[in-house]
Structure formats: structure tokens, C-alpha cells
Amino acid sequence: MTRAFPEILEEPNIWSRPFWIRCTLTHLISFAEGAMNANVGSVDKVVRVVVGLGLLSLFYFLEGKARYIGLLGLVPLLTAAMSFCPLYTLLGLSTCPTKK
Q: What is the pTM of this model?
């Protein structure tokens, strides 16, 4: 039987658990409560995919150690796939349409 995360923190013996377990439970709760809300809109996703694929193609076209610059293309591709950009969160930005 699984219990909700907040119920686990309300247990009287939670503070007797090791510190790393308490921290992990706290992070899981914040994640489960929507700490990663979508902040990348559809137009932004398309731009990120195009830029990401362009950068990733450099991995195949460049030679030597410079080719690894192309791996930076994974960042915009992953942020587009997750609809979440950590930098946007820090800056307080969002390109998602507002809900009515």
C-alpha cells in the first residue's frame, strides 16, 4: 500500500530517519507538487528543436575536439521534449499561453 508523500512527512518518526532520506523525501514532495511546471510554449519548442538539431549536426560535420560542441544541441532538444526550461524558471519567464 503506497501512501502520499505529505503523509510520510507527517509520521512522528520521520525525524529519526537519516538526514539524506529526509532530504530526498522533501525533494520528491516538491517535485510531485509540480515544481516543474511547463514553461515552454509550442512556438518556443519548434525553435528549440530546430536549433538543437542544427547544433547536433555539428557533431558530424566538425572534426577533432571541436565536434563535441555539437553535443550542446541536446540541451534545447531535452528542454523542448520536457516543455520545461530551468533557466526560464530562474528568470521568471514562460512562453506557455495563459490559462483562462
A: 0.63
Per-residue HEC secondary structure of 50-69 comes to HHHHHHHHHHHHCCHHHHHH
- Give the integer Cα–Cα distance in Å for 51 and 71: 12
Q: What is the CB-side half-sphere exposure of residue 36 using CA atoms within 13 A?
A: 11
Check residue 74 and give its pLDDT.
Answer: 95
Domain boundaries of the chain, sorted by first residue: 1-35, 42-91
Contact 38, 96 (CB under 8 A): yes
